Amino acid sequence: MADTSALAVFKALGDESRLAILRILLTEDSYVELLASRLGLTSATVSFHLKKLESAGLVTCSRTQFYRIYSANREVFGATLASLVGTVPQPDDDTRYREEVLAAFFENGKLSKMPSQRKKREIVLRHLLRFLDPGREYGEKELDALLEEISVPDYCFVRREMIAFGMLARRKNPDGGADLYRVTDGDAGKGT
């Protein structure tokens, strides 16, 4: 039974003798004795390599009277390298990782400590961002009070980090009071 998985294909291609056999089979069908003669190998060696190539789905075999005729599997060779390697994981495939990070840094729904690694800190901050309404501006005291409710560490540090990551925008209050804050458009609805 042929295994056309990427790993089986790449393992089969990882030998110079098998590559030489494939070069011939890509131009013409052949049999063990003729391949052995053309490559200067024993029939047993060629048979061994053909079995590897066949099990990887790179060659097929058919019987004609006394000979087993080998052919390159044109379907596999017509495939792109990208299709053999597979698809790129979707951006949301890191859900499990995010959940592990949040479980490590939140206790009873509150942030217990701020991660030192940048990627983990970003995950934590995006999670906290979901408590903010993206459609409104917050005064500094109001925002600090909200952040203090959901985070045990220094809520001012949390606010500054959200600004540093570009999650919050800060502007001077036109009335002369404390600064005003809002969720940036690019981060609206991105909280985990």
Structural commentary:
The protein has helices spanning 6-12, 16-27, 32-39, 43-55, 74-78, 81-85, 95-105, 118-129, 140-150, 155-164, and strands at 59-64, 67-72, 106-107, 110-111, 138-139, 168-171, 180-183. α7 packs across α8. The model has no long low-confidence stretch (mean pLDDT 86). It is rod-shaped. The chain starts with 5 loop residues before the first helix and ends in a 9-residue tail after the last strand. The chain folds into two domains: 6-85, Arc Repressor Mutant, subunit A, CATH 1.10.10.10; 91-187, Arc Repressor Mutant, subunit A, CATH 1.10.10. It has 192 residues and is an alpha+beta fold. The strands form three sheets. Strands 5-7-6 form a three-stranded antiparallel β-sheet. Strands 1-2 form a two-stranded antiparallel ribbon.
Give me a quick take on this structure.
This protein has 192 residues and is α+β, with helices and mostly antiparallel strands. It has helices spanning 6-12, 16-27, 32-39, 43-55, 74-78, 81-85, 95-105, 118-129, 140-150, 155-164; strands at residues 59-64, 67-72, 106-107, 110-111, 138-139, 168-171, 180-183.
Task: Please outline the helices and strands.
Elements: H1 6-12, H2 16-27, H3 32-39, H4 43-55, E1 59-64, E2 67-72, H5 74-78, H6 81-85, H7 95-105, E3 106-107, E4 110-111, H8 118-129, E5 138-139, H9 140-150, H10 155-164, E6 168-171, E7 180-183
Antiparallel strand pairs: 1-2, 3-4, 5-7, 6-7
Pick out its properties.
192 residues; alpha+beta; Arc Repressor Mutant, subunit A; 2 domains; 10 helices; 14% strand; rod-shaped
